[in-house]
Fold this sequence. Notes:
The complex is a heterodimer.
Chain A: H1 8-32, H2 54-59, H3 62-67, H4 78-109, H5 116-125, H6 128-142, H7 148-173, H8 176-184, H9 189-200, H10 202-218, H11 221-226, H12 234-243, H13 250-270, H14 275-279
Chain B: H1 33-61, H2 82-90, H3 92-122, H4 130-142, H5 145-155, H6 161-170, H7 182-210, H8 214-222, H9 227-254, H10 259-264, H11 276-285, H12 290-323
Amino acid sequence: MLSKKLTLFQAALLAAALAVVLFPVFWILMTAIKPPTDWNASPAIWMPSQPTLVNFKTLFDPDALKEYGVGGVSQSATKAVIGSLLASITATTLSVLIGLFAAIGISRYGAENKSTPLVILSGRMFPPAAIAVPFVIIFSNIGLTDSYVGLIAIYVAATLPFSTWMLKSFVDDLPREIEEAAMIDGKSRIKAHLTVTIPLIRGGLFATTMFIFILNWSEFMFALVLSYSNVSTIPVQLAKYVTATAGTLYGVQAALAVLAMVPLVIVGYLIQGHLARGMTFGAIKQ
Amino acid sequence: MASPPGPTHPADAPGLSPAAPHGGGKPPRAKGGNIGLALTLPGQIVSILVLVIPLLVALYMSFTDWSPTRGSLFDAEFVGFENYSELLIWDTRFLYAVLRTLCISAVCLALEFAFGLSLAVLFMRRFRGKSLLFSAFLTPMMILPVVVGYIFWMLFQSSGPVNQILEFVLGPDVALEWFRSAPLAVTAVIITEVWHWTPLFFLILLSGLNSVPENPVRAAVILGANPRQVFWRVVMPTLKPVIIVAFVIRTMEIIKLFDEVFMLTRGGPGSATETISLYIYKLAFNDFQLAYGAAAAFLVLLGALGLIHLLLLPVRNQLLEVKR
Lengths: 286, 324
């Protein structure tokens, strides 16, 4: 396309759009560092006069939480943070590993089941509330309700289409001849994949891993319906704060929200060149 | 742009979409078939165990009158299509949830497309600090849906900043109760969703614009086309497959709209913002009508598959033309 310089009017439009995009982010960051008196002031306070980290401390201190006198949320966020890390990291590792095998199988050996796309589409479009129902039943029969094993199994299955198709698009980009050359040198197929294919797509492997991590870390619905007292994740904990006498814990909740989003945004920036590929199952390569 | 231009040209973009039946275009290899099978086996097993079996259980359940208070699922009475006919004929709450979800989706996707395309076109211009701005504009889509819901819940509080800005612009006494009025609550949901996902349209459309071949554009300019004609007659048609991919991906996700609405309104006031997912969630986990909820989910799945099929129809024809 023929590129011209931005006119003044267009620059103004861009600036306005930027303000709209960044304002909500600014707001959550500011709320997280507001002292309790500023949380729900009327009129709302945009920038706290005395920024504080007390909300982050309260979040992990059950006694401090109790002082706010909110029943039901006196549970500190420690468990949710550990739970989120455990579930996301394990599920991401498994999903990418299984997806990597499948990607090589599909890309290099055409081992693609004809019904695969339909199953994937159905799985992605089926309202999670409804697919959660059979899980609740099956899991309660085999004792996996309210367990990390059950949650991780669902996360792996839910992200597998993304990891498989994203990795497949990276393997597709790699010329076959490179592996064939390794095989001529006397390496077996498996060895050729291990020593040639996988090292050569390590950039893609990293991007895929981060992308799957974003998906798992963000997941809310399954964690909500499959967790009672043993299992907790950050999104579920966030929703719990809303339930309790709404609004009382603005700053603490915002602090948890910031803890949840900052790692994701950093990871997102790291792989921004591959986000389109991930979101579109590898259909669009940037 | 930060990353180098890929080998893709728009015409083969939909070909790589999982929904297209023609696959990646490479012929399958006969030899090494067993290795291929072995490599995909773990994925197949996981999909069957954690996707196909639950779907089948749900399907069976949707033909019964089971609920957790009635003991084991296999003792439940088989009622045939009763749940389905109830949903389709009598359940106005379901009908409204479907219509509401479709309306909200249509408005959101139209706005996301318009804003995303405008932004992407602006990004085709030359200006300084482009890569930094690019990252900034992508930020919303990297934030967790639950957090996005919470942020906008705060912004739309009656003493929150949105009302403050409105009062500043429109004068005092505007004080809107965003979550107490049906149209305002729907508006809040739409604004939230558009803010969250416009970046995805921007990202996909920008990568599409970047891969529009230069020669036809040059030729059109030489032949005397004005910029508007170049855009609508040359650029947009080549962009069509990319646009459809963006719509298909977003349709799949927005049909399930849940997290943000759960945080914002819980479907309220009344059921003014109750989406399909929220309705099914309430059926299953508040009212314990699990079988009925499963039936609703299968109706939604059928509808959604039909919708995606319709969306893909135009590109499918285009694909065949390209192949000939």
